[in-house]
C-alpha cells in the first residue's frame, strides 16, 4: 500500500470523478486508480451539512479522526469490507482511497 496519493494524482494515475455523497467530515467521490474503480473520501475542515449550514471541525480533532480511520483500515482485512488502497496526509489535503464497493454507483 502506498501513502503517495498526492503524487499519484499529480501523475494522472488517480482520477477523481463524480461526487457520490458526503458526511460529517467530508465528501465521497467515485474515481479510478490505474484503471481500477475506487472510492475517494476527501476530508475537509469546513463542511456544509444537509441544511446548508457550514460546520467547522477543529483541525486537531479532524486529523486525529483521519489517523484513527486509516490505522484501523490498514489492519482490517475481510472479504465483506472494502480494502484500503492508500491515503493522502499532505495537510490540509486529507483523503482516503478504497476499493469501490461491489455495486457501488
From TrEMBL:
PANTHER family: ATMRK SERINE_THREONINE PROTEIN KINASE-LIKE, SERINE/THREONINE-PROTEIN KINASE TNNI3K-RELATED
Positions of the Protein kinase domain: 14-105
InterPro entries to which the protein is assigned, alphabetical: Kinase-like_dom_sf (IPR011009), Prot_kinase_dom (IPR000719), Ser-Thr/Tyr_kinase_cat_dom (IPR001245), Ser/Thr_Kinases-Pseudokinases (IPR051681)
GO terms for MF: ATP binding; protein kinase activity
Protein name, per record: Protein kinase domain-containing protein
Tree of life domain: Eukaryota
Matches recorded under Gene3D superfamilies: Phosphorylase Kinase, domain 1
